[in-house]
Amino acid sequence: MRGIWGFLSGLVFGLGLILSGMADPAKVQNFLDLAGAWDPSLAFVMGGAALTTFLGYRLVWRRAAPVLNPAFDLPTSRAIDRPLLTGAVLFGTGWGIGGFCPGPALTALPLLAPGTLVFVPMMILGLWIGARLKSSPAFIQGTAA
Amino acid sequence: MRRPVQSPRRGPRMDMVTPTAFTPWASLGGGVLIGISAVMVMGIFGRIAGIAGISQGALALPGAARDRDWRIWFVLGLLAAPLLMLALGGAIPQTVPQNLPAMAVAGLLVGTGTALGSGCTSGHGVCGLARLSVRSLAAVVVFMAAGFVTVFVLRHVIGGL
């Protein structure tokens, strides 16, 4: 059951990415190009997704617990700290250069564009580096400074 | 419904830019599907549908959450989506940058940044904003700003990759 629901959730997410145009780097980069060929479509993706999620969350949170896990597990950190902001700058820069964020990059993988085939393994390497960096004492000590 | 948006201000070095059509309805519909998926993940597993975190979990990278089973299947679902689309006869228009060293750097930055910043467009942008998280809003503002600046510099200062 967990596998089926996990798969279906991923499939719906992926279809949404494709239908919305998020899986096309040209569309993402044109959204980010305010001074040029600006394509505002992505604002509709973010708006539609965030609003649907906002309403849907409030419905499912009426339950005592999710269907297949013992409890809801929500992020607890509220800190706007150095890892968050540094990470957001790095991510935004890479997003602008490549036109891919993690979901679209994965769902575009089977289309086998050379750029995607280079992007995804490097993204996975980056996920590993980022996780290590986040837990490194040097970086955390820098946060307090 | 679909009308191409062309900039009147395209400079002489902008010919590498692929114009894309403004697609408000398809984009809104796709966004709603993404939202439905995020609600499914919350209702069924009680988790945030952040793709960076789900990928970390599926690959058992350091710092990843424990319930790995559904995350592996979620990634398989993401990968199956374009194949289903093509099998049903749908087209997937896509222009991926062809500068491979730049794509390598971009992938590294996206992976490192989302792991360090604990989220990406889905985790912070969709799920975080839906939870009215100020931390996520800060991340979204910063990564959007970084994206705007990056594309401005690449296209209008350097003149393309």
From TrEMBL, chain A:
Listed transmembrane segments: 41-61, 82-105, 111-131
Family annotation (Pfam families): DUF6691
Keyword annotations of the record: Membrane, Transmembrane, Transmembrane helix
Keyword field contains Transmembrane helix: yes
Name under which the protein is recorded: YeeE/YedE family protein
Source organism per UniProt: Paracoccus liaowanqingii
UniProtKB/TrEMBL annotation, chain B:
Presence of keyword Cell inner membrane: yes
Protein's membrane topology: Multi-pass membrane protein
Cellular-component GO terms for this entry: plasma membrane
Leader sequence residues: none
TM ranges: 21-42, 48-65, 72-92, 104-130, 137-158
Zinc in keyword set: no
Pfam families xref list: Sulf_transp (PF04143)
Domain of life: Bacteria
Record key words, sorted: Cell inner membrane, Cell membrane, Membrane, Transmembrane, Transmembrane helix, Transport
Localization (cell): Cell inner membrane
Protein family membership: Belongs to the TsuA/YedE (TC 9.B.102) family.
Full protein name: YeeE/YedE family protein
Naturally occurring in which organism (per UniProt): Paracoccus liaowanqingii
